[in-house]
Amino acid sequence: xxxxxxxxxxxxxxxxxxxxxxxxxxxxxxxxxxxxxxxxxxxxxxxxxxxxxxxxxxxxxxxxxxxxxxxxxxxxxxxxxxxxxxxxxxxxxxxxxxxxxxxxxxxxxxxxxxxxxxxxxxxxxxxxxxxxxxxxxxxxxxxxxxxxxxxxxxxxxxxxxxxxxxxxxxxxxxxxxxxxxxxxxxxxxxxxxxxxxxxxxxxxxxxxxxxxxxxxxxxxxxxxxxxxxxxxxxxxxxxxxxxxxxxxxxxxxxxxxxxxxxxxxxxxxxxxxxxxxxxxxxxxxxxxxxxxxxxxxxxxxxxxxxxxxxxxxxxxxxxxxxxxxxxxxxxxxxxxxxxxxxxxxxxxxxxxxxxxxxxxxxxxxxxxxxxx
Length: 372
Hints:
The protein has 372 residues and is an alpha/beta fold. 34% of the residues lie in helices and 21% in strands.
């Protein structure tokens, strides 16, 4: 057994890592016995200003993570859009506390990730970065991609949405025209009084199916239902987070009457939230940066299915590292919104691709990424 493991490790040696830049005020690298954890900040540059119902931004703070064991390196990342309430400083603080010397064997994923999760009640993005890097490392040591380890068929990956942020009608038309022919479904950010104008602008240039995400922007349940009925007539196929997270009874009322499935986004964080949302939402949107990584994301998907709920896998603005990690269980889901790497101009990795609108998983071990 050990000889086979040594063979797999040797055959899956990762490419050399790039030079590291330390987080200001933090050590960028610390020895952890057999495993070495390294991390550094990496600001993601957006191709276009990104606007949702509550804010706009042109960059996203990010921390890149590497875990090396016996010459093999696994890659992970923590992406932190504003609403997560996390920062480069908080992520680096958390990562500085992680002591992998307690675990001489990276295959002990359950023990390692339970320990990482116990270090604080929050810090989900930092935990996700460690989780993704460990999964990448272990997959490389085994010599298999995680979709195959989980028993999933890569030919069943869904089409991914491509996101159109809130903007002027002219810009919305331009962004839509850029996406037409490349994607089979678009995701439109709504939640302001410009919703109808945006949808009409898109429909002026394409009849492609649409998903919409209100990001809690709608406030009145009856008006939300009226809008959803109109959106269905416009070719919309699903709705994310129509009302604020503290309005669960109104969301349940809306879900019961809606002609479209209603998915939880901001309302769903981790595994412990799934069962309580059954009967309130039609489905859940799983994001690794919220749920602390691949281990818990996969469990959330399975539990949601067991409860009769639909499953979506989504993302923040991320490099192909985080997107490829989330894509590993995409053959299991109903909807995918894994375009975060396509929205940035400084991706660090080659990984999952979009081919004729569908996700195409790389046939590489781990999460399937290669540093550029």
